[in-house]
Fold each of these.
Amino acid sequence: MVTINWTDEAVGWLREIYAYIANDNPKAARNTVNKILEKTKLLGAFPELGGIYPIDAPYKIRVIYYSHYRIAYKIVDENRIDILGVFHGAMEIKNYLK
């Protein structure tokens, strides 16, 4: 099984999402973060679940979706996936990933 590694940047994005939603509804914030985490766990069994995001980078970036959030990740090797960030659908990923 593949290990899912959350980068510091991705954890920061997840915390920002939680804080933003929690201002209005802490329960909804917990639910959203938990659903994002559940979605990423699928990568352990299906590492190529996400489509390739078209960006000029030294490695392939893949994206899976939860609601209106895009979860960007890269397959490091057969044993590890790095979660690179969690982005609202209105955000341009290429401005944040290099």
Amino acid sequence: MDQVTFAQYAGKTANIIFAPVYIAKARGYFKDVDIELSIDNPKEQPWVTTAEARADCSPGFIDYCTDPEFAGKLMAVAVHEQFRAGHGLTSLLARSTIVEDGSLTPDPASIKGKTIGLLGGRGDDYMAYHGVLQQAGLTIDDVKINATPHAGDARRIALENAEVDIVIGRRPNGVAAEVASGEVMCWKVGDEVNRDLQARYIMFSTPFMKERREVGIRFLSAYLRGARDYCDAFDKGVGREDTLAVLVQETGETEELLTSMLPLGFVPNGRADEGLVANDIEALIARGLMPEGTTFETVFDRSFVEEAVAAIGEY
């Protein structure tokens, strides 16, 4: 049986982000294709672990494929999450006071002049804000930027001191806790943030792609079966209770949270929309997060997912 290591974000609250992996593992889909899967929770970002070939695969965003630190070391091979209509994990959380006093309204244009929490060098975070700004005909120059992290004391203090108005929420458990504190309110969620954004990808390390190609295809075939089970359950109601029970057991999240949050927009065939990727690349180049000349083929190898889908059939 082939050994494959998948690196994910650290911490148990990240598990739900990778529901297809956990469903596939719990239901024996990896074993069906002779793969023994290990799930790693590295201290560093998972794409770092993959780029250094200490894991075979991980989540990531397309800008990492051209980052000088990672270029040539990893590649996107499937879309993991897309902000389809009524779907999406990422939230933009606003300080409650600016919602209550009416200075921030549901109108995306009301973001103008506000201070957003945005760390440098993160294309996925930038594209979340880019989507809202684009809806209002605005650009990043129409807001102020504070380098606010995704969690921790620095984030809490920045919100309390009104040093930042809007921050990104990446994990449903963390979002629920911050909203419950009263400090923030959900302003935009999922497809409201950036409709149809292909927000996370499955990344393969270069050695995994070149030296174990057939194993990678088998990994994707099992992973996609897990994504399809999730879509069946939360989009079609097929096997919902059984899949929900698996997720409660495997992710550690409560049934209440899993049924109240927006469903994640997993992509059952894993294919990337080339036109949407081209638009994202253009925006990332303009922001200096990708080099001039980057193309779809620079960041995405479609051959793996095509062979995986051929093996299990179209969804």
